[in-house]
Amino acid sequence: MKILYAIQGTGNGHLSRSLEIIPRLQKEHHVDVLLSSSQWELKVPFPIRYRYKGLGFVFGKKGGVDILRTYLELDTKKLLKEIKSLPVEEYDLVISDFEPVSVWACRLRNKVSVGLSNQAATLHPLAPKPEQKDRFGKSVLKHYAKASFNYGFHFRSLSDDVYTPVIRKKVRKAEKTNRGHITVYLPAFDDFKVMEKLSGFKKVPFQIFSKRAKYTLRNRNFTVFPLQDELFTQSMSESDGVLTQAGFGTTSEALYLGKKLMVIPMKTQYEQQCNAAMLGNMGVDVIRNLKKESITQLEDWLVSGKPCEVDYPDQTDRILQKIIGRHAGQAMESPFQDIGWDDMVQQLFIPQIEQWRAPR
What we know:
By secondary structure, the protein is an alpha/beta fold. The chain folds into 2 domains: 2-167 and 315-357, Rossmann fold, CATH 3.40.50; 170-304, Glycogen Phosphorylase B (Rossmann fold). Helices cover 38% and strands 19% of the residues. It is built from 15 helices and 14 strands. It has helices at residues 13-26, 67-72, 76-85, 100-108, 118-122, 135-143, 169-172, 191-198, 229-237, 249-256, 270-281, 292-304, 316-327, 341-348, 350-357; strands at residues 2-10, 30-39, 50-52, 93-97, 114-117, 149-153, 162-163, 182-185, 206-210, 217-219, 222-226, 241-245, 260-264, 285-286. The protein has a 7-stranded parallel sheet with strand order 3-2-1-4-5-6-7, with helices on both faces. The protein is globular and about 60 Å long. The protein starts with a strand and ends with a helix.
């Protein structure tokens, strides 16, 4: 069977999950890989058939997505060309981990697509939602990569089609120790801002991983490392706790490793706000920023924070078998109407613009 597996390359979470899923699919099927956007650092051990610019987001330095840079880097003509040129009709099954080019290519050709992502789970009716409503963010999450069928991952199983996280084998095999340091990964904050805010905790060793650092820097109780997967995994497995954003990959692995966890959900990132709502319900410490009040909460967590117990069995093979059994070669029961670029802009962008312009 011929499968197209499409990965959203904004951040490392989607790609990290694919490193576990794609080799399993390759054992019995021909798998072509699509990777769009360019905000990732992991090494890719398999060939990429389609390398697209796609429709990604740019991390800022103040705790959220840089909306202006994201807008300025959007190339709608190139995006349309990528969507139109992707030959999804050649595949028996198209799986998208929140990747928009593949999903919209399927919609243009009345082709079934299967969503397999954390984002699919955050929209589930039983998934906790943030107290502060974000109509714009929810609309983006709903329409950005809207697949025909969805299977999700969350920090807790919510239904037969929402599973606990896929944990990489290297993390499952990692030796869990506690050498007393705190592993820090806050890609949406400026590195110097992070060090400034943590500088008051002089007795706590921090290992900070940076998307921007080119070399290792040591200064008093700080060590700043360029983001590198093996070293980062080792740091987490040997840490006393993990301070990070509320993305899905790092947080899931920290929970699996039995580490106390504190998260700062990215501003203007509805998915992370939803993740933080679920984590908060589970007893994980959540702060909103690095301002004075949050630093007080951080101090309490450093002294008395506790791990949250989870059970994340390896369900990957069972999930893939279910998807293949249900959807391989499946015809559209209710085909999408033949839509062009104007219709796609209307469905994907206009709702977001209107929500943004609406009175708050």
